[in-house]
Amino acid sequence: MALLRIARLTLRETARRKLLIALVILTVIVALLTGWLFHKLYSLPCGEAPHLHRCTVATMDLAAATLLILLLFMFSFVLALGAAFVAAPSIATEIESGVLLSIATRPIRRSDILLGKWLGFAVLLALYGALAIALEMVILKVAMGYAPPHPVAAIAFIIAESLIVLTLAMLGSTRLSAITTGIIALALFGGAWLAGITGEVGQLFGNRTIENAGTVGSLIMPTDGLWRGAIYNLEPLAVILGQADLGQRAAANPFFVLSAPSPPYLLWALAWGLAVLGLALWSFQRREL
Amino acid sequence: MAAPETSGAVRESYAIRTVDLVKRYRTTTALDGLTMTVGHGEVFGFLGPNGAGKTTAVKLLLGLTRPTAGEAWVLGRPMGDRIARRRVGYLPELFRYQDWLTARELLALHCDLAGVPRAEQPAQITDTLELVGLARRARDRIGTFSKGMQQRIGLAVSLVGRPDLVFLDEPTSALDPVGRHDVREIIRTLRTRGTTVFLNSHLLTEVEQVCDRVAIIDAGRVIAMGTMDELRGRRDVVRLRLGGVGPGALETLRRYGDLEIESGSYTVTGLMPARVPALVTELVGLGCEIFAVEPRSQTLEDRFLELLGGSNGAAENRPPHPA
Question: Which CATH architecture has domain B16-230?
Answer without folding.
Answer: 3-Layer(aba) Sandwich (3.40)
